[in-house]
């Protein structure tokens, strides 16, 4: 054990190092963390997520890559990389970049572009300080390629969305840039009143939602505008301008905060002081709440009790974050990660009953599954395979069913049921959750006969138990129509006598259909075109060379334990965090990594950054989110607080005081994995005002331990 810890100390300093890149490029280079495993020689080729992020940096901030070319330390933010592999990354990823020789090896590259820089180009002043003249070279990307990307973005098919007032007072449908509302109480269309001073754009809406109280309604999307409406007067109360396109929204149960996620993987929060008075508020800016490190967030939810906010992304992860008492100062405490999906996550919903108010989380994905989670521990409780529902059953024993995407999940209020829509299925199916046995089962499949109606969004109200569905899209290829939507309703969803209502039976009847659909009748040819477009809409591909899940660093990981997925044949299982699954006597555990920190950095006084990392490490080792009395996390937090009030350096509590014999003091231990390292690195970065990890600190030790374990 001593030899392992000494080896880990050496590895920590080998991989660790201070950051020397430009401050303006700090976040950009940190976003390349999925490439670290390849850049350290851990794999022969970069992962898909690495190449995707590298391509993004090349297009958005190529000047920052010069910081890597010019660096003599071959490291950034405590992570070492091979400069030869770094220079080969464009070739390995098949990404066209400016020549590295154009980077100025003698001076600094500016992080902002001069005024009047032509579209599609970046300017890099290449000069020597001793020179009296400054030569400027323009590195021009192919403008036709950039224009093609922009055109593709503009023509991206946007699915129609539907949302229903909790008391079914109104129904909202969004298709393209159109937001259509129908008042079911007055039985008439709603005219929206928007007197905000913000810019007027006409781009696709990507998220709509009523608040739990039914007082507020939020819409957002590709126009980078988050609009908060009164669900009574339908007046726009506030408009927030986002820096990036918005992908998801959530409203706290007390209507005090609105959160939105952008396409860069950042979640922002807006405080709604006085908004319940129904008055138009002055324009506000969102405050940074949390980040998924450049992974697009696909779903955002508050837990039923409001204690947590959940964010799911395209990189298979669901993050459960404690919603802070002061959200504008950021959310720094991660409760758990729900890991188990092998493809992008599309939707999430809570299933709860009056007896179980916290409920359990259900998630849908592109891996043909709906999964059930305990968000407190991040444990995977059950997995339901849905490809057979869509008619993709195995034709023989040697063929696997074709993967399908779960497009939406809608939990039935105050019940253990949820309706689920699938990308290629003409109808919905009902899932039942046994909250005692923690199992999922398909109880009913409802097919919609006749027209090509494939739901793109579903919703239900707490009062009527009607399931509202919409099928539709905007920007259909080969169509001059800006967008269309078709609305259908299912009654008595929970009973054997459930039925699909005819148009005249729907609340609001033809008046509602004319408002929400644009017209009463939708041609079959248009419905078929939309169904075809959604069936072949682009989804995140798997890595060509490996279909296993990847962590943030691009490392292929496979974990095992007793708390396994219940789906037979599922090779990905949830680890038991209280058991150290030692694959070899030379593997490094979390406790040993913490002890290595005590050896490498023992004399350093404990600060809040150290305490946050220690707490994250203890949580990963034990599976318990709250620190135990007398445990490492509690001791580290107390030490950090004490040190802030202590003047004498000699009287301060050190890392060695806390982490010596850490393995023995932990009630449970496990082998360090890349997910563990990711969680600890994230905790340490978030607690640092400079967004840096401590060289030789807890994050470095955990990262080194994960690398050593990966090589064994």
TrEMBL record:
Q: What is its main location?
A: nucleus
Provide the residue span(s) of the region labelled Disordered: 528-553, 682-712
One GO CC annotation, please? nucleus
Name the UniProt key words of this record, in alphabetical order. Nucleus, Repeat, Signal, tRNA processing, WD repeat
Q: Where are the WD repeats?
A: 205-239, 338-383
Residue stretches making up the Bifunctional inhibitor/plant lipid transfer protein/seed storage helical domain: 25-103
Family note: Belongs to the WD repeat TRM82 family.
Assembly mode: Forms a heterodimer with the catalytic subunit.
**HAMAP family named among the record's database cross-references:** TRM82
Could you identify this protein by its name? tRNA (guanine-N(7)-)-methyltransferase non-catalytic subunit
Q: Which organism is it from?
A: Arabidopsis thaliana
